[in-house]
Specification:
Order of helices and strands: HHHHH
Radius of gyration: 17 Å
Helix content: 40-55%
Distance between the termini: 72 Å
Structural class: mainly alpha
Oligomer: single chain
Number of strands: 0
Strand content: under 5%
Shape: globular
Length: 110
């Protein structure tokens, strides 16, 4: 009746409450709690560490177009074993809010 070695996890997953807002800091906290190095994610996903660091630090100006950010956050979330759709939806809300054009300004005015 005991668990066979195949049924046991190598190490128990820490229980982490992400809440409803998945920020770069939350992603980093989960990654660190799971003992995953940024270089491991970069190697597994083929996403540069520079972009992964920009995601964690929410340096939106250093990120590519939103379509790429969506894919990067999705792959990052899969790598740290959290719900990728929830992570993408929450993170992109933050990304889009920060990158929304300010009323009354335009590129031509600069």
């Amino acid at each position: 009746p005991g668990a066979t070695p195949d049924e046991r996890h190598e190490s128990p997953e820490p229980i982490i409450d992400m809440g409803d807002d998945v920020s770069g800091a939350v992603l980093r906290k989960i990654r660190e709690a799971r003992g995953i190095e940024l270089s491991d994610i970069a190697h597994r996903t083929k996403i540069s560490e520079r972009h992964l660091r920009a995601i964690e630090e929410e340096r939106f100006g250093d990120m590519p177009a939103a379509v790429y950010v969506r894919g990067y956050v999705m792959e990052y979330a899969k790598s740290i074993r959290i719900d990728p759709q929830k992570a993408v939806n929450s993170y992109l809300r933050r990304y889009n809010a920060r990158n929304a054009p300010v009323e009354g300004t335009s590129k031509e005015a600069i």
